[in-house]
Amino acid sequence: MPQHRDDVVVGAGLLGLAAGRALAARGRDVLVLDQATVGHQGAGSKGGCRIFRLGYPDPEYVRAARRAAELWRQLEQESGRQILISTPQLSFGAGLADVQLAMQQAGAPCQLMAEREAAERFPGVRTGGPAVLEPESCVTAADTALAALAAAVPDLRTGVRVTALADDGRRVTVHTTEGDITARSAVVCAGPSSRALLAGLPGWPAIPTTPTLEQVAYLRPAAAAGPAMPIFIRHGGDESYGLPVPGTGQYKVGVHHGGPPAGPDANDQRPDQALVDQITAIAAASLPGCDPAPVSTERCVYDNTPDEDFVIDQVGNVAVACGTSGHGFKFGPLFGEWLASLATGDHAELPPGRFKLSRFG
Fold first, then answer.
1. Neighbours of 59 (CB within 10 A)
2. For 313-331, how does the pLDDT look when each residue is reduced to its tens digit (9 = 90+)?
3. pLDDT, tens digit (0-9, with 9 covering 90-100), for 196-216
4. Candidates 3.50.50.60, 3.10.105.10, 3.40.50.150, 3.90.170.10; correct CATH number of 3-44+145-202+307-360?
């Protein structure tokens, strides 16, 4: 006989763990499943650190990030672990004016700095023009965040592969390698694999997500290292970014959407020399605070939508969150609240309509 639960969450990455935690907090009997382990090498949410920022060229995203910050702080209090490490950020590039305007419209603190002023305060980064200082940015301790979310999930099972879903209108049947499970609802947070899992369900449109295999590099401080390095994001141009890695003295640098297309289970950790060369050139030109020669590299999967907005939606008794497009980690606990509201129907905190699949026609 199949097991029965209130909710089954498919995927134990950031989104799945956040959904499991939020559902458990609502008193639901929830089971979270993953075919691998939390933070495994092929996971989109693996690694030690991410950028938490408010700076977006869209006030709705700025407001969502501010709400997510409140929820991260709650998780810190509940878990006794530090997740957000306050770190100033410089945002610059061709899209700077839109970012500044959106932050101002959303009431987020920011300060416009001339190029010389930015260089005097943060000599380790060359902005090439004016910059916006974001004082509420942070480095997210990503591995600590996953551990805190996992600890808040009462029933987490790894090494279990979900092979199919069925929704008869009354309940969902989750077919797994360890038998069938029935539930009042299912929440699919399987990254690039979400598309195939949902393809056969009635009423579900195709999810137009495409995975890419991205790369980051880790740099040492320059020989004559100066003040602590800030986070940086270049809006427009090469879309590069960087952040200090807590506890290591190293600096992580990447290019947003710089990687090649990949399969949904991509896990090739070999460095792409063209991407290494690009990151090295960026570091040589823009990061005098770092030795441009990488100490090491790392590959990770982006799950991309055509417009870079997320997919967070529900059809029948199945909800989904995917297509985070390389900028979703900061919203983790907020995604969890949105998904729990969809699954339970409590409408406590629902995702904006812009994330519905219907936008793709």
1. 16
2. 999 999 999 999 999 999 9
3. 999 989 999 999 999 999 999
4. 3.50.50.60
